Amino acid sequence: DLLDDVLALGAHHRPTASAVVDSILQRLHRTQSAFVALKCLLTIHHILRRGSPVLKAQLSHHHLLNLSTFRDDSDSDTVELSKWVRWYAEVIQQTLIVSDSLGFSLSSPPSHKTQNREERITFRNSMRELNSLVGMVEQICRAPDSLHYQRISMVYEVMKLAGEDYRITLREIVNRVTEFGEKLIEELSSETVEELLNDLKRLEDCKEKVFLMFLNKKKSDGTWDSIAQLRRDVEEVKQRRENLSLVAFQGGELTGLAGPPSAESKSVVPRGKRWLDVQWNHLAVNNGPR
């Protein structure tokens, strides 16, 4: 298998691994064929999933795949496939970004935790990780609408790998969702509550699209229920704080009305024959004819 040969070639020696990755990237950026571009991207994705640490390390330096302008105008099918190329490049790009955030390859996560998350992860880190994971789901959801193109074996393989990354991403999201207990949410700043709520809403906006893409609604219903429950808990905390702020504000207004007159209010009392620094004149009262 040619792919296995590529993976084996860059398995151990850094110079060889670097040459392999550079060769793939050069081929990717020079081709005008949608099929060749998809094949290059699939190879990169397989390196992320199955490659040696030395080989993966070479890819970590190539965050900018930058195929946003790629287009194969050979025929109507290649024009549509070009959309898949652009989307898939962005998915892999986001995979690299998320991997940096998590500290391990998203496409091939460790089989066991080497250290308790509570010992090594701060809440701020969890928020940053959640944000990047939600970004991954959002990017996957931007897949072209031509899902019927999965009849093409290469697109089918793309969707298979993207689906596996989606399931890993969702699992990592659930790991972080379980960290946000009710007590912890209560301790968050208002700014962080707003940030968390925004991430959860972004995530839920993707729900229907991923169900359509991967047809796994029943398998992930429990996961999405947990996400929805956390969103409701965060909304309750936010609403409760807003209500308390409103009560405090209204209470302050009432206290101000009932309090002693201010210096400004005293200044309107006439002093001698002057009032508000305007010369005070006695009013001539005309009582009319008697």
From TrEMBL:
Looking at the keywords, is tRNA processing present?
A: no
> What domain of life does the UniProt record list for this protein's source?
Eukaryota
The residues the entry assigns to the signal sequence are none
A UniProt-annotated Pfam family: ANTH
**MF GO annotations:** 1-phosphatidylinositol binding; clathrin heavy chain binding; phosphatidylinositol-4,5-bisphosphate binding; SNARE binding
Keywords on this record? Coated pit, Cytoplasmic vesicle, Endocytosis, Golgi apparatus, Membrane
- Record's InterPro entries? ANTH_dom, ANTH_N_plant, AP180-like, ENTH, ENTH_VHS
The identity of this protein, by name, is ENTH domain-containing protein
Q: What is its main location?
A: cytoplasm
- The keyword Chloroplast belongs to this UniProt entry's keyword annotation: no
A single Gene Ontology CC annotation of this entry is:
clathrin-coated vesicle
* Species of origin: Opuntia streptacantha (Prickly pear cactus)
Q: Which residues form the ENTH domain?
A: 1-106
A GO BP entry = clathrin coat assembly
Instruction: List localization entries.
Output: Cytoplasmic vesicle, Clathrin-coated vesicle; Golgi apparatus; Membrane, Clathrin-coated pit
